[in-house]
Amino acid sequence: MDRLSLLTFIILILASYRLTHLIVFDKITEFIRKPFMKKKRIVDQNGHIDEKSVPASNFGYMLNCYWCAGVWCAILIGLGYLFFPRIAIPVIFILAIAG
């Protein structure tokens, strides 16, 4: 196996960061998270009612947790780079630039 250059490593890091952010925070991927989340009403001491989305399952926790999703995104990016480079490298490059 060839050694990974520093530039390639940085590109993989940035792509993993951007994919994680896309899954956990971005509005465009809310449809992925929504089936695994539930609404919870919270009443503060002043009587104000607030509605918050909380995970409804373990998969929901993974989609809502930046650290958990980050590990899985890094695995996905790394395996894509190693086993499917012709497909993964353009996607990784775009994600890295966006990151």
Q: Can you give me a brief rundown of this structure?
A:
Helices cover 63% and strands 14% of the residues. By secondary structure, it is α+β, with helices and mostly antiparallel strands.
Structure overview:
The chain is α+β, with helices and mostly antiparallel strands and 99 residues long. It has one domain. It contains five helices and two strands, in the order ααββααα. The protein has a two-stranded antiparallel sheet. It starts with 5 loop residues before the first helix and ends with a helix. The model has no long low-confidence stretch (mean pLDDT 93).
- Please give the order of strands in the largest beta sheet: 1-2
Number of domains: 1
Shape by Cα distribution: elongated
Tell me the span between the first and last alpha carbons. 27 Å
Helix percentage range = 55-70%
Rounded average pLDDT:
93
Give a quick account of the main beta sheet: strands, pairing sense, barrel closure: 2 strands, antiparallel
Q: Return residue spans where pLDDT drops below 50 for at least 5 consecutive residues.
A: none
- Gyration radius over CA: 17 Å
Strand fraction equals: 5-15%
Number of helices: 5
Q: What's the helix-strand series?
A: HHEEHHH
Structural class: alpha+beta
Give the strand tally. 2
